[in-house]
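Journal club prep — side note

Before the paper discussion, L.F. wants everyone to see what a predicted structure for a comparable chain looks like in token form. Sequence:
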Amino acid sequence: MDRRTLLVINLRYHLVSLAAVLFSLAAGIAIGAGLLDDAGASISNNQSRQQDISPAVAGFDAAYAENTGPDLIRDSLSDESVVVFTTPGAQDAQVTGIVENLQTAGAQVTGQVALTSKLLAPANRQFSEGVANQSGGDAVTGESAYQRIGSALARAYLGTETAEADQDARTIRSAFVQGELLDQTTEPEQTATLAVIVTGPASPDDADYGAVVAQLAPALDDASSGVLVTGPVSSSEDRGIVGRVRAADGTQDISTFDVTDSATGRIMAVAALAREAEGNPGAWGTSRAADGPIP
């Protein structure tokens, strides 16, 4: 990519940032220093941020994303494959939007897999570890239980290259599904080079779930070209999954983005994954994001 093209892309990114700020102002979200303020970011349990946005503003955001998004992300993931994991409470519309944007970016989406509440509840740690050990054999590594569980999931779904899923991978998947630890919405036929974990609005269980995801994600990252944990604005609260991942030790190589409750945000989530794939992890989105609003 030549220098001029890079400059054009950077300019477009700044335009998207400006549009996101205007979008937030019109929606009545408090703005601090040009970014989303913490006081305005909280939403009630199981409620999408989109429900609080006027139809006119939501329509503007969707139209802006539709007209500018493809040019921003096209071919940015053309050499990559992605498996999409979801956590309990992830909004179907947001997951679908991210999957479509991944495909626009040129990524091969290998499949969609739900991490169940049984897997993410710390009370079930011993059971989950037992399933990982028995199904994964020598492929399971790590000192802690969730490191070992994460390494089993990595063996089942990820790799440094896209390849047909072998019998060992299918054995692990089958064991986790039968143990009700996973639900394969779309079973991947191949392993992926990248993983996206899509979360939902912050809920009472998410503090525990987030602590588990923060331990699983590094194991997934070690076996692949990168991991992005993303979700709506409230997911970055202290009790939200994105917030817990950001605060945890050992997650400095995991990228995060926290505005999937807007069409523009779902475009930027894919841009964040592209940065992660290039070896440039970061935390982007609202004012809780250390690296600014956009990748």
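L.F.'s comment for the group: Confidence is low (pLDDT under 50) at residues 3-9, 21-51. Keep this in mind when we get to the figures.
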